What does this fold into?
Amino acid sequence: MKLRLLPFIVLSVILLDSCSSGKSALKKGDYYDAVLQAVNRLRQNPDHKKSKEVLSTSYIMAVEYLESDAQNQIASNANFKWKNAVQNYERINYLYEQIRTSPGALKIFPNPINKYKELTEVKNKAAEETYEAGIQSMLKSSREDAKRAYFLFVETNTLSPGYRETIEMMEQAKFNATIKVIVEPSLRNYNDWNFEPIVFGVNPSQFVKFYTPQGAQDAGLTKVDQFVKVVVNGYSENRPTITKRSESYKDSVKVGEKTVNNVKVPVYEKVNGSITIFEKQITSRGSITLFIKEASSGVELRNSDLISDESWSERWGSCTGDQRAIPEKTRKLCSLKEPYMARDFLLSRTKRELDNRLAESLNGFYGAY
It folds into this structure.
C-alpha cells in the first residue's frame, strides 16, 4: 500500500514545488503572478533553483507587458484609460517593492525597475479624467447619477488628494444622492415607549439620512423625500396560568450490606415516591406599526405590523412518599416554592424584541438605497 502511494506523493511534491516557484503561472503566460510566486519562494529560500529560473525569465517580460499595456490604454479612446494605466504602473511598482524585500530575488535583479515618476503623471491625468466624469454625472438630474458622481469624486480624491474642488463636489454629490427622511414623532402611549432612538440608530446606507422635523428645518431642507412614523398599537400581559401533573416512581435503593458465605453483598429496599409538578406561565404581546410615506405623492411605501410575543415560565414541585425514588433532576423541584416573575420582566423583553424587529425592517427597506 505504501509503495502504491509513493508515486502520488512524489507527484504532489512536484506540483507543489512547481506552483510555489511560479513555474505553472509562467507556462500559462501569467508573468506577473509568476514573478510574485518566485519572489515569495526566494524570500523563504534564497537558493531555490526553480524560483531563480522563473524570476530570471518572467520579470522583464512582466514589466514589458504591463508597460506596453499601459501605453496601449493611453493611446486608445477607451473610457477611463488613464485609470487603467495607473493600475499597470502600480503593479510594476509592486513588483519592484517585492523584489527589494526578497534578498534571494535582489541577487538576480539588484536594480529592479520602478515607474513612480510615470505613476505620478498618469495619476494626475486619471484624476482629471474621473473628475470630469463626475461633473458630467452631476449635470444629470437622477439620484443614481448623483451617486455615480459621488464615487467618481471619491476616486478622484484617492488618485490626487485635494484635486481642484473634489471635496466640495463630493459633499454636494452625496447630498444630492441622499434620501432625506423626516421621522415624525409618535403619539404618547401608556408605557411611554419611544422608538425614535432606534430609527435614528440604524445605518442602512450612507445615502439615507433621518431628520427630526426641527432638524430638517435647521438644515434648511427645501425638499424632503419620505416620512417615517412608528405607531404603538399596544401591549398586553395575560394573568398567570398554573398547570400541574403528577408522577409516581418506584425504585430499589441500597440501605446497607450483609455477609453471605464470607462475601459482602448489598442490601436493597424498595421505595415509592410521587411528585406533583406545577408550572406557572405568563405570556405577553406588543405591537407597533411602521409607516413609510413618500413625501411628494403621499403614497404609502410601507405599512407593516411588527409583533413580539414573549413568555415567562417557572416550575416547582410538591413531593410525597420516599423522595429517594424520584430521579435527582426532578427531585430538585421539591425544594422550590411557587415563583413570582420580576416586575416589568416581560414588558422590557417585549420592547427589546420590538426594537430589534424595527431595526431589521428599516435596514431591509433602506438597505437598497
The CA atoms of residues 99 and 105 lie 5 Å apart. Residues 19-175 form one domain. Residues 5-16 have pLDDT under 50 and may be disordered. DSSP finds 13 helices and six strands in the chain.
